[in-house]
Amino acid sequence: MGEWKDCTIGDIGTVVGGATPSTKKTEYYENGNISWITPKDLSNFTGRFITYGSRNITEVGLKNCSAQLMPRHTILFTSRAPIGYVAIADREVCTNQGFKSVIPNENTDYLFLYYLLKYNKDNIENMGSGTTFKEVSGNTMKNIGVRIPASYEEQKAIGSVLDTLDRKIEENARINKNLAA
Question: How do residues 71-125 score in pLDDT, each as one tens digit?
Fold first, then answer.
C-alpha cells in the first residue's frame, strides 16, 4: 500500500449545488431532454449509476435557474431531506437544490470518490445544520477532511476492487429476483 494524504473534498473535486426551474412555467419541463435528478429519485434507487430522474428539464429551464449541467461520472450526493444518498451520473445531468455533488478532479478516480463519500456519509450527515431539517452547505462539503491514496493509480485500484464486488452483488440480486418471479 502506498502513501496516503489528508485533504478536503474541495481538494479532490468541485462541489456543485443544484436548483429547480420554476414549476409554474411548463416550457421549463415539457419535452425536456436534460436529466434532472432529485433526492426522491434516489430514495428507492438501488444501483450506483443513474441516467434519468422522474422528470427532465428543457434547455430553457436550465438557463433560467442556477442548476448546472454536470459531466458523466459526477458523484451525486444528497445534502438535505435526507443527507447521504449517493449515485454516479452515467451521463450529463443536473440536480435540484437537495444536492452537493462532486465533480472529480482529473487526478481523482470517480469510483474511489463514490466509495469515499459513501464511507463518509455519517460523518457528513453529522456536519449538517438547520432547525426544520438538517442540511450540508456547499462550504461545509468542500471543507470536509478525508484521507486518500496519494496516487491516482492506487485510487483506481481500490475503486476497481470495490466496483467488482458491487457488480457481483448486483448480479446476484438480479438472479435472486428472477428466481423469485
Answer: 999 999 999 989 999 999 999 999 999 999 999 999 999 999 999 999 999 999 9
What pLDDT score was predicted for residue 2? 86
What length does the chain have?
181
Please report which confidence band the pLDDT of residue 137 belongs to, taking 50, 70 and 90 as the band edges: very high
Task: Kindly report the CATH number assigned to the domain that includes residue 28.
Answer: 3.90.220.20
* Strands (E) located in the chain: 4-8, 13-17, 34-37, 49-50, 55-57, 75-79, 83-89, 93-95, 100-104, 145-149
State the Cα–Cα distance between residues 91 and 50, nearest whole angstrom: 8
- 3-class secondary structure, 114: helix
What is d(CA 82, CA 73) in angstroms, rounded to the nearest whole number?
22
Q: By C-alpha distance, which of 22, 58, 26, 20 is closest to 39? A: 20
Mean pLDDT of 148-174: 95
| Alpha carbon distance 120, 88 (integer Å) | 16
- C-alpha dist (Å) from residue 162 to 72, 105, 112, 174: 19, 20, 8, 18
Domain containing 71: what range? Answer: 4-180
Quote the number of domains for the chain. 1
Instruction: Give the whole-angstrom CA distance, residue 93 versus residue 52.
Output: 8
